[in-house]
Design goal:
By secondary structure, the protein is of the alpha/beta class. 42% of the residues lie in helices and 16% in strands. Bound molecules: 2'-deoxyguanosine-5'-triphosphate, calcium ion (2 copies) and zinc ion.
């Protein structure tokens, strides 16, 4: 898809315009177009061909023309002109905390700074602090910003951040004088990676709460400690630090602050527009009619006054959630009745069938499917047909003597480079449940990942496609998969698509979930656990499903065992 390149181009234009001092409206129109393209499930090239670009929100005539120019020539005039105006290393300076576009423009024009290295030099030589409007304090802040950027490098996966955040949230809640506290920001929205952890709390004496917060065990550096906001970092590993922000407000503003700091920024902009349309004001202290607060104590009241259902945080992304008339009842961890993708010692798992079953039963599950690797996954000790036949017998035997939970015979069958499956149909037909996944030749061009996936989807014995795009967060890019085609074929063939809950994967991701649901595809939320400890990762998959708008009716493993069996049979018929 050409979308990713267009997103980069538009974001670049916006950054450069900002440094150039262009007006905010123009800058925002590019940012909005970039966001739209990022979220769009369809290829901009296809939309352009069909003359449908302007159907996307935020894509007007001018933007559509620029997209067309890019498609035709690989260039955008506006971008070329801006690029010629500034050195390539300059826009990156905007990522430094404490460096806004005005300051970037200033160091460029006054000190000929062209890159991060140049900036470090003028800090070291004290030239920077002599510039009008800067001074020692703001230079110190910029230097700290650079240091932080170099230490933190990138966003932290949800699966790392959430458990840490919960420890700090519990500690905040336990502080004397704290009436209530909640996670906010991207973490509360369940975003797959987060910039920093945000916590909002309700207490009368902010200064006292912040004082204790910055002294918590594990705090590495204190960035700010005032009466309403404390900001600290903790050490993630030798090179990386993670920031935690705590905001303290009074009870009357707690709901408003929670709403404001949960974001997203884009969602908040839309909400504020609604308030303004009613001649009200909305900020982190409340919703105001003149000087009078009309909501603020509870988050739900803000939404209610604005004529909206109380939208779950996972949906607050300005992805048309403000058009909802009712808040959807999104799927919860409690709705999950079993886990349909896990490994054992037979392939590359670390626990036995009995151990996995006992742990799943402990979680209150009604069923699991044991899905070990197939023969071509040699690195993962995949099972030959002979070993698989023995393994199936073993699973049935364990299932028979295990009370209180059903154990299905499954496998995770490789989709080979030519699109065929690693086991013959006779073996697959013997399984209760078949996951088919691509594990090798991810970038192969002879048979595209899309072709291979479509072939697997069409096999009557394939119940579900595992981790469909193959991405690893912050590590491996997704395969080039034509998601629209995959979703269409899954719908027609009644093949389930997985939301792999492993925090390194989260695959399908939120916007793909939305695409699948829009086409009526059933999804499965599973952990792909290789150890009993990993069954709890289901929560990350559930958050991802919620971000895509999934209810329990959309999820195959929210069905009863009988319902699940029927669902599998319906495809095989
Ligand atoms: P992150 O930390 O990059 O993963 O993303 P967020 O969404 O947690 O962003 P963060 O930590 O900068 O701020 C938390 C929330 O506070 C954000 O979602 C919305 C709100 N917020 C922060 N700064 C602004 C702002 O300048 N304008 C508006 N409207 N909201 C803001
Ligand atoms: Ca944040
Ligand atoms: Ca923050
Ligand atoms: Zn697996």
């Amino acid at each position: 898809m050409v979308n990713a390149e267009l997103v980069r181009a538009f974001e670049r234009i916006a950054d450069l315009l900002e440094i150039d001092g262009a007006d905010g409206f123009r800058i925002n129109s590019y940012r909005r177009a970039a966001r739209t393209l990022k979220d769009a499930g369809e290829d901009a090239a296809v939309l352009a061909k069909e003359g449908r670009l302007q159907e996307l929100p935020g894509i007007g005539k001018g933007t559509a023309q620029r997209i067309q120019q890019f498609l035709d020539s690989g260039h955008i005039d506006v971008l070329d002109e801006l690029e010629a105006k500034f050195p390539p290393g300059l826009p990156g300076l905007l990522d430094i905390p404490g460096m806004g576009p005005k300051k970037v423009a200033l160091v460029h024009t006054q000190l000929a700074v062209k890159s991060l290295d140049d900036l470090k030099k003028v800090i070291a030589s004290c030239e920077l602090e002599k510039l009008p409007g800067l001074g020692a304090t703001s230079v110190k802040k910029i230097a700290e910003g650079i240091a932080f950027l170099e230490r933190s490098g990138g966003r932290t996966p949800l699966g790392i951040a959430l458990p840490i955040a919960e420890v700090f949230l519990d500690r905040v809640r336990a502080l004397c004088g704290v009436k209530q506290a909640e996670l906010a920001g991207s973490l509360r929205r369940g975003v797959e990676t987060i910039g920093d952890i945000d916590i909002v709390c309700d207490a009368a004496d902010g200064e006292m709460v912040i004082k204790q917060f910055v002294a918590f065990e594990g705090v590495k550096r204190v960035l700010a400690a005032g009466a309403t906001k404390g900001s600290v970092t903790i050490e993630l590993d030798a090179e990386k630090e993670l920031q935690i922000d705590l905001r303290v407000v009074g009870s009357d503003s707690y709901g408003a602050a929670l709403q404001y700091f949960t974001g997203s920024k884009e969602h908040n902009v839309r909400l504020r527009e609604r308030a303004i349309a009613k001649k009200w004001r909305l900020n982190e202290y409340g919703l105001f009619d003149g000087e009078k607060s009309i909501a603020g104590k509870r988050e739900a009241d803000i939404y209610k006054k604005l004529g909206l259902p109380c939208l779950p945080p996972e949906l607050r992304e300005d992805r048309r959630e403000l058009e909802l008339i009712e808040a959807p009842e999104l799927v919860t961890v409690e709705d999950i009745r079993g886990d349909l993708h896990m490994h054992t010692v037979a392939s590359d798992g670390r626990c036995t069938i009995e151990e996995m079953a006992a742990a799943a039963k402990e979680r209150g599950y009604e069923y699991i499917a044991i899905c070990d690797h197939s023969k071509s996954s040699t690195i993962a000790n995949g099972l030959s047909v002979k070993r698989m036949v023995e393994h199936m017998e073993k699973i049935r035997a364990v299932a028979k003597k295990t009370k209180g939970i059903a154990i299905l015979v499954g496998c995770e069958c490789d989709i080979l480079a030519n699109g065929s499956l690693d086991y013959p149909d006779e073996i697959l037909a013997e399984c209760d449940w078949v996951v088919a996944s691509i594990h090798s030749a991810l970038g192969s061009t002879k048979h595209s990942p899309t072709e291979r996936t479509l072939a697997a989807i069409e096999n009557p014995y394939v119940s579900m496609i595992g981790h469909p795009t193959g991405r690893l967060l912050n590590k491996r890019a997704p395969m080039e998969l034509d998601m629209a085609a995959v979703v269409e074929a899954a719908a027609i063939n009644r093949t389930i698509l997985e939301i792999n809950s492993s925090w390194q994967r989260l695959d399908l991701k939120d916007i793909h979930v939305r695409m699948a649901l829009d086409r009526g595809v059933t999804l499965g939320i599973n952990t792909d656990a290789h150890h009993t400890d990993q069954l709890s990762q289901i929560r990350f998959g559930v958050l991802t499903a919620r971000r895509g708008g999934a209810t329990k009716a959309d999820i195959v493993n929210c069905l009863s065992l009988a319902g699940l069996r029927k669902r599998i049979e319906r495809k095989r018929l």
